[in-house]
Design brief:
3 domains, eight-stranded mixed β-sheet, 14 helices, 25 strands, 25% helix, globular
Length: 564
């Protein structure tokens, strides 16, 4: 759904908006540096280095998973799920849909997802004979309750405002009919993440539902101690079995530990205090690849869409309400130097909203590093308006990234103040427009429809005039039209053309000053098996890692087990 910035110590995922917004992207922070910037000795290693299973899956045992951040709760209709929250959510809840190996959404908890010819109605039917952890049946009434709760929330509801009505299907007690205000051919994509994690109807009557999650998933909630651990135990009546008829899941217990400090998380894994973890730290990934090649650990890199790291500009406030200033910043930003200094040169340089190799990416011209061109724009603006001065903020604890940008921008005559802001306030300020420039991370969805909510003008607002998911508040009718074309058509060619237009227009408007792209990795001890996602319920190969809710580094633990 929406990836909020969850970054308490370095670059964590972006999704942390108010108490419900769910899915934003990840906002600031930085990576460790090194004085040794020689070529990466692990550059040619495979994307996955794992231990092959030596026998059939083993049942039982407790798997401890270190997460990069804590969540504010675990009710998908109310709370915000970053990558960390999504991983926990997929243990307790089942999504209605999941991505296959071709990155197409397929039914998961749903038995079918059937659109009308004009994509203005979708009939969602769930699988029969499934119950929630509290014994309630999964049926059309439960589906309607879930969608109605999500639509009613002030923040989560923004992501599904295109839904006009949810009605019970009079011909099938296991189905609902969802009517759209405008055609939504890509609707199943939304159902792979937070907005597809169906909650038990009883949660509607629980004022503290975020602390008492009840789903149909492979594990049953047992305990949550915020900032310490989230524990869930094996669901003895889970509806899924493996290809050999063994009831899933294999694990008896999972324990998620939020460990925001990168080095502490790494040390916990290497000491054997945790069994799995995820990370985007480029130097640590290289280190783990080396250890995995030596047989000491296992690692799998997410090969899907990467998240972009960038500076987000509030286009509704001066000086960024003038595109000349935004273009000056783009010309003044030396992305190569930034990647070398902050990331040891290990990350992909960003120049737009899609990664290299993505089927969606096109050549969308973006300003080159050109200090002279930046200086000319600064001089022109200042002659008409006055000096350019603003505050660049980050929500991490490491100021090196914003300090380097300050240095680059001040070299062309721009005055920059820097600030570190506590995470929860950081995200709220973004939603309310109470900022000027933010270090941010977002846009990791494998399907561009995930990003509709972040770019459409209908989700913008004047600063202080309400919550906006279009955090940059960039309003462009041509972008809106292209987003609608991409959302409403099932034709891949039409969709590619629409999102090509979006890319070009965003790089003309320049609400984002691109920096680099984050690579997600999942790392595990050598006794863990089934690190990547097993087959989908119909036996189809699943996307190995990443995708749900538009996040990388996310895996299901449904078919994970411990070997001895």
């Amino acid at each position: 759904m929406i990836d909020w910035p969850d970054r308490r110590s370095g670059r964590l995922p972006l999704v942390c908006l108010l108490a419900s917004l769910t899915v934003l992207a990840a906002c600031g922070g930085s990576s460790s540096t090194s004085d040794d910037r020689s070529p990466d000795p692990n550059a040619d290693l495979p994307a996955a280095i794992t231990v092959a299973p030596e026998g059939p899956p083993r049942t039982g045992g407790t798997l401890v998973y270190a997460l990069e951040a804590e969540s504010d709760g675990f009710d998908p209709t109310r709370n915000r799920f970053a990558p960390s929250g999504t991983i926990v959510g997929l243990a307790v809840y089942d999504p209605l849909a999941a991505f296959d190996a071709d990155l197409e959404p397929r039914p998961y908890l749903a038995e079918s997802m059937t659109p009308s010819a004009d994509y203005l109605r979708w009939t969602i039917k769930v699988r029969p004979d499934i119950t929630f952890h509290d014994g309630a049946p999964l049926d059309g009434v439960a589906l309607k309750t879930f969608f109605d709760r999500a639509r009613a929330d002030a923040l989560v509801g923004i992501a599904v405002r295109n839904i006009d009505a949810v009605e019970l299907d009079p011909t099938d007690p296991l189905a609902v009919v969802i009517s759209m205000k405008e055609p939504w051919a890509a609707f199943p994509v939304t159902l792979t993440g937070q907005l597809g994690m169906v909650t038990a109807p009883s949660m509607a009557d629980d004022p503290d539902s975020g602390r008492n999650p009840v789903g149909t998933g492979p594990f049953v909630f047992a305990e949550w101690v915020p900032d310490n651990r989230f524990v869930a135990t094996r669901n003895p009546t889970y509806w899924r079995s493996d290809a050999d008829g063994n009831r899933l899941p294999y694990l008896e217990r999972v324990e998620f530990r939020p460990i925001a400090d990168v080095q502490t998380r790494n040390a916990s894994l290497e000491a054997g205090n945790v069994d799995m973890m995820h990370t985007t730290n480029p130097r640590d990934i290289a280190t783990f690849q080396g250890k995995a090649s030596a047989g000491e650990l296992q690692i799998v890199l997410d090969q899907g869409e990467k998240e972009e790291l960038f500076v987000m500009l509030n286009t509704k406030v001066a000086p960024f309400d003038d595109v000349r200033v935004r273009r000056a910043l783009a010309h003044a930003t030396d992305r190569e130097q930034y990647n070398t200094v902050i990331n040891d040169g290990r990350r992909e340089i960003a120049d737009g909203v899609f990664s290299e190799g993505s089927k969606w990416k096109v050549d969308a011209p973006y300003p080159d590093y050109d200090p002279a061109a930046a200086q000319a724009l600064v001089d022109e603006y200042e002659a008409e308006v006055g000096p350019i001065r603003f505050t660049l903020a980050d929500s991490g604890t490491d100021s090196r990234g914003i300090d380097l940008l300050k240095q680059q921008w001040e070299a062309v005559g721009i005055e920059v103040d820097t600030e570190l802001v506590e995470q929860s306030k950081f995200v709220i300020n973004a939603a309310l427009g109470d900022y000027e420039a933010y270090s941010w991370r977002q846009f990791g969805g494998v399907d561009p429809d995930y990003d509709y909510v972040w770019w459409t003008s209908e989700n913008s607002a004047e600063p202080g005039q309400g919550v906006a998911l279009n955090f940059a508040r960039n309003e462009n009718p041509a972008i809106d039209a292209a987003l609608k074309r991409g959302r409403s058509s099932p034709d891949p060619a039409v969709r590619r053309e629409a999102y090509a237009e979006v890319q070009r227009l965003i790089n003309e408007d320049l609400p984002y000053i691109w920096l680099d792209r984050a690579q997600w990795a999942v790392v595990a001890r050598t006794q863990v098996r089934g690190i990547t996602n097993g087959p989908l319920p119909d036996g189809t190969a699943a996307n190995p890692i990443g995708g749900p809710g538009g996040f990388g580094g996310v895996t299901f633990l449904t078919q994970t087990w411990l070997a001895g």
